[in-house]
Design a protein that fits this description.
By secondary structure, the protein is of the alpha/beta class. The protein contains 14 helices and 12 strands. Helices cover 36% and strands 19% of the residues. Helix 5 (154-165) links the parallel strand 8 and strand 9 (174-177).
């Protein structure tokens, strides 16, 4: 298990090692010593997307329980929608886009990225239009409205990069937040609410199968190719007060990520159960090329901040911190 920044805090007096009988893997891994979390009951707010398969697998296969954790997963439409709850201590960890957290960090809040969840991969994020849409090119979106799961999130960022690459200023479109998030977007798009919509898998596939909606453009291209998308984030206050809990959570997540990397069928099955989608959707959805395991890669998250700065997600007041890397570094190397 790679060492995380928050493990630098002294755990003397709060870490009690026990022998976890039977806590090995299903393949018979040897029994290991674990630490008792300071707070075993934690709430994780998560967007419904295939990028978080590692989280759902860890829950389904008892990986959190083996680390002494009881995890309650609460669905949310976007990371942006839960930041206030997290700062108030009503949510422990958020699983979703980095964008809102980088913006909040720049504004003075203090968050810590515990682990990475996913990296943008072909066909996992897309702009979708109705089957009968007259829009057949990205350039035709100028002057239009795009439905997204959060206006201060990864959707507008990726879409802005795409628009700019096609000669359209992002200021020429209007982004509208859908309160129900990804599950609600295809239905509203079908009713003619917007010109196009931003979707993640498995809802890209579901929109096509249920409504015949079409992918206008895959968003994994150009300046945002292979951009880190989602991660597991806590406030620094929470992480510093609960280092053993944070470490236990991260271990279980990495085990879930490893299973997701090794088994497409495991990802398909867990998304079918978690999102209540039919097998024909989860069986044909695009999957991330990999689920990251190991230390958070600073350089990758710095790319997110740089793209945010370019397209207005951060102000020019933040430019020096973005370019020096100190903004993102403050979310990874803490203490």
């Amino acid at each position: 298990m790679p060492t995380r920044g928050f493990l630098a805090f002294s755990l003397a007096g709060i870490m009690i090692t026990i022998l976890a009988a039977g806590c090995g893997s299903r393949n018979g891994t040897a029994t290991a010593a674990v630490t008792i979390p300071e707070e075993p009951d934690i709430t994780v707010a998560a967007i419904p997307a295939v990028d978080l398969a590692g989280l759902y697998i860890a829950q389904d296969r008892g990986l959190f329980a083996r680390q002494g954790l009881h995890v309650t997963i609460v669905p949310v439409p976007s990371s942006q929608s839960v930041i206030t709850e997290q700062l108030a201590g009503r949510v422990d960890i958020s699983a979703g886009s980095y964008v809102a957290y980088i913006a909040a960090q720049a504004a003075g809040s203090r968050f810590q990225i515990l682990a990475e969840a996913s990296i943008l991969s072909p066909d996992t994020r897309a702009l979708v239009v109705p089957a009968n849409s007259r829009i057949t090119s990205v350039a035709q979106l100028a002057g239009g409205t795009i439905g997204v799961n959060g206006v201060n999130s990864i959707g507008p960022l990726l879409t802005s990069a795409l628009l700019a690459a096609h000669g359209v200023s992002p200021s020429k479109v209007r982004f509208v937040t859908v309160s129900g998030g990804f599950p609600a977007i295809p239905g509203q798009l079908q009713r003619g609410a917007w010109s196009a919509a931003f979707l993640a898998e498995p809802y890209i596939t579901a929109a096509g199968q249920q409504y015949g909606q079409l992918v206008l453009a895959d968003l994994d291209q150009g300046a945002v190719l292979n951009l880190p998308v989602d991660g597991y984030v806590a406030t620094q206050t929470w992480a510093q007060a609960h280092p053993a809990t944070a470490a236990a959570f991260t271990r279980a997540i990495e085990q879930g990520q490893a299973i997701a990397n090794g088994s497409t069928s495991a990802v398909q099955a867990i998304m079918a159960r978690n999102d209540g989608l039919p097998a024909q959707v989860t069986g044909s959805m695009a999957l991330p090329s990999s689920y990251p395991v190991g230390p958070v890669e600073e350089a990758g998250i710095e790319r997110v901040a740089a793209v945010m700065l370019k397209f207005g997600g951060l102000s020019q007041r933040d430019a020096a911190e973005v370019r020096s890397g100190t903004l993102v570094r403050s979310m990874i190397r803490t203490g």
